[in-house]
Design brief:
Layout (H helix, E strand, L loop, with lengths): L17 H11 L12 E2 L10 E2 L14 E6 L4 E6 L12 H8 L8 E3 L2 H4 L16 E3 H11 L2 H10 L3 H15 L21 H11 L3 H7 L3 E7 L2 E6 L3 H4 L10 E9 L3 E10 L2 E8 L7 H14 L9 E2 L12 E2 L27 E2 L7 E2 L14 H7 L9
Antiparallel strand pairs: 1-13, 2-4, 3-4, 3-11, 4-12, 5-6, 7-8, 9-10, 10-11, 14-15
């Protein structure tokens, strides 16, 4: 029997490197006081710092890709097979929950039980996607993670964040984890991905989060779960279904052959985002698609088209970059750009139809011993301001609530 004063046992997570710890310190600083960068960085290779489509050794990329940024990579080798504006910073919506899971997932046993208090969900933003957490009900950690992955429940995220010591602590740890993963385009403001000024990520970083998270059996199991029974109080339950339409086959889409997750997202400002993974013929590919121009199915249709290309004509593609390994796992740190001209909107590379003009990420690394993320000013959100309320309403379906 657990009461409201129950304190969950927190597992010791893997130790972060000194560089990641310094990243945590930088994340805790106000943006205006973060250490200025000394040199632009190239994360994953110089070609990924260029604007526009990057591909070599293969032809026939899908022509109707309207996403403002996307990336296709081999999950095992980390080779980036093709991309467009890989480091462009955009609002991530709930795909940021992959970083939340990568940060918090291993801290609690999945069988551990926790009785939710009013204060655990009092700070959930209005308009959030919810799984239906109720104060006074006791949930297992496994059920809470099902709420995160299947229904993209911000209420489940906030409960787990409070179990982890609070939202602010969790955000700081997520920023440190991003620094360790070398996801330098990412700035975390909230653990749930809800729209906040300055909350940004990139197609490159989201793919990093997915690739690293999928190494964990629990992460992979949750993101690939189609349905689950969720507590409703007493002995009652209700069924929840994964909002990933390529996984479940819904809203006019079929199940994508070989797809096993990983995470979708939608907000009225960010539009739709999605990172998906699929295995065919012994090969596993990851695709991240951010902010297509059209309705909510486009993010899945464009993901499927890029996966089809990757398993087909893209099999002959030569790498245009790499998904780097975490610093704590021996990954090499970022290197300075070879020249000022190598980065920018004017760099070589064709542009996909409908994609935005961005060039390289302005997020920079700190030189010298620190070697960690320096946080730039919040600045522009990179949000799709031209998206009208009508378009948002047409694009959203059940499961596409404001913070999904």
């Amino acid at each position: 029997m657990f009461d409201s004063v129950y304190r969950p046992r927190v597992r010791d997570s893997s130790r972060l490197t000194r560089r990641a710890v310094l990243g945590l310190t930088a994340a805790a600083l106000p943006l205006s006081t973060a250490t200025p960068a000394s040199a632009a960085t190239v994360i994953g290779g110089e070609r990924l710092a260029r604007g526009g489509v990057q591909v070599r050794g293969a032809t026939g990329l899908p022509k109707k890709i309207t996403a403002h940024a996307w990336l296709l990579a081999d999950c095992e080798s980390g080779e980036v097979l093709a991309s467009c504006d890989a480091h462009r910073r955009l609002a991530p919506a709930s795909t940021l929950k992959m970083l939340f899971a990568d940060t918090v997932l291993k801290k609690f046993d999945r069988t551990e039980r926790y009785r939710v208090k009013d204060s655990d969900i009092s700070d959930v933003p209005a308009g959030s996607s919810l799984v239906g957490i109720k104060p006074g009900i006791t949930y297992t950690v496994e059920q809470l993670w099902q709420g995160v992955f299947l229904r993209s429940g911000n209420d489940a995220v906030h409960v787990l964040a409070h179990m982890n010591g609070g939202v602010a602590k969790t955000v700081a740890e997520m920023q440190a984890r991003a620094a360790d993963l070398q996801a330098l385009d990412t700035h975390v403001v909230s653990p749930d991905g809800f729209d906040h000024p300055g909350q940004l990520s990139s197609a490159y970083d989201l793919t990093l989060f997915a690739r690293h998270g999928l190494r964990d059996d629990d992460f992979r199991g949750y993101c690939g779960t189609r349905t689950a029974d969720f507590p409703a109080g007493g002995k009652k339950t209700f069924q929840i279904q994964n909002t990933d339409r390529l996984l479940t086959g819904s809203w006019g889409l079929g199940v994508y052959k070989g797809l096993f997750g990983v995470k979708n997202g939608y907000t009225s400002h960010a539009g739709n985002t999605f990172t998906g993974g699929a295995t065919r013929g012994g090969r596993t590919l990851l695709v991240t698609v951010m902010h297509p121009d059209s309705g909510s199915n486009a993010v899945y249709e464009e993901t499927a088209a890029l996966l089809d290309w990757g398993f087909g004509k893209g099999s002959s593609a030569q790498a245009v970059g790499m998904l780097v390994d975490p610093l704590s796992e021996g990954g090499a740190g970022a290197s300075p750009s070879p020249s000022k001209g190598a980065v920018g909107a004017g760099a070589p590379g064709t542009r996909a139809a409908g994609s935005g003009s961005s060039g390289a990420s302005p997020w920079l690394s700190v030189g010298g011993a620190a070697g960690v993320l320096a946080l730039a000013g919040a600045g522009a959100w990179g949000l799709r301001g031209r998206r009208t309320a009508k378009a948002a309403a047409q694009g959203a379906g059940p499961g596409d609530a404001q913070g999904s």
